[in-house]
Structure formats: structure tokens, C-alpha cells
Amino acid sequence: MAKKWPRDRYTGPGGGLYKVRAGAWTPTTVGADAYSGGGLDHYNGGGLDHYNGGGLDNSPGGGLYNGPGGGLYSGPCDHPFMASTPPTQVFVKEQRARGSNAEADEIARAHGIK
Fold first, then answer.
1. Is 12 left (phi over 0), alpha (psi -120 to 50) or beta?
2. Is the CB of residue 53 less than 8 Å from the CB of residue 105?
3. Burial of 7 (0-12, 13-18, 19+ CB in 10 A)
4. Per residue in 12-22, is it b (16+ CB within 10 Å) or e — as a string?
5. Segment 46-55, tens digit of pLDDT
6. Domain count, the chain
7. Which domain holds residue 114?
8. How does pLDDT run across 84-96, given as a tens digit for each residue?
9. Of 106, 109, 55, whose CA–CA distance to 81 is shortest?
10. Which of 20, 45, 51, 90 is 20 to 30 A from 63, comparing alpha carbons?
11. Strand ranges, E, within 29-101
């Protein structure tokens, strides 16, 4: 099972942008895994999956959903969006470096990253 981190936009304890503990990202290869729900997986709920609660899913529980449990949610949540991807700004840069510009653009737009 791949390690997953909270990746919502909540800045408090347990949130994806919390600086002290849960949101802190440490480099690992899991974010670059193209299989098994990894950061580069287009299926299995992975970072590039448009369905299944994946990083590009805009329905409840997905990475581009702005309600509770979604990756764009900025409030506290008992079950925050979890992902095997690194912080969004790092992930977008890595996507572009690998030629996945359409996916990088979609993620960047949703998160207000240039």
C-alpha cells in the first residue's frame, strides 16, 4: 500500500497545508508510481485519474472537489482527501517535466498555480 498524505487545502492540524506534521512531504518515489494508485496512475484512484476519487476527479472525494473530503476543500475534515502525490506545486512541475502538460495545466488551474 502506497503511503498517502492529506492533500486538501486546510492549514490546520491534519490538513494538507499544515506545516508542522501531516502536510509535510518527504521525498519518495511513490509520487512517481504510474501504477497501483500512484501519483502518475491514470486509473486506480491515482493522481491522474478523473474518476475513482483520483487526483483529477471533481466529484465528492476527488482531488478537484471543493467540498468536505475533496482536494480543494479548505476547512477541517475528519476524512481529508489523501493522495500519493507530492505537494501540488511540486507535482505540477514533475508532470510538465514528464510531458503531461494537459494534466499539469488542469491541476494548476484548479489550484491557482501558474
1. beta
2. no
3. buried
4. eeebbbbeeeb
5. 888 999 999 9
6. 1
7. 1-114
8. 777 788 888 888 9
9. 55
10. 20
11. 82-83
- 83: which strand partners? 5
The number of beta carbons lying within 10 Å of the beta carbon of residue 50 is 17
Q: Which long-range contacts (CB under 8 A, 24 or more apart) does 12-21 make?
A: 12/76, 14/76, 14/77, 14/80, 15/76, 15/77, 15/80, 16/71, 16/80, 16/81
Q: Name the H helices within 15-100.
A: 88-97
Closest Cα to residue 111, out of 68, 65, 69, 76? 65
C-alpha cell, 16: 494538507
Q: What are the beta bridge partners of residue 6?
A: 82
What is this structure's pTM?
A: 0.71
**What is the C-alpha separation between 71 and 92, in angstroms, rounded?**
14
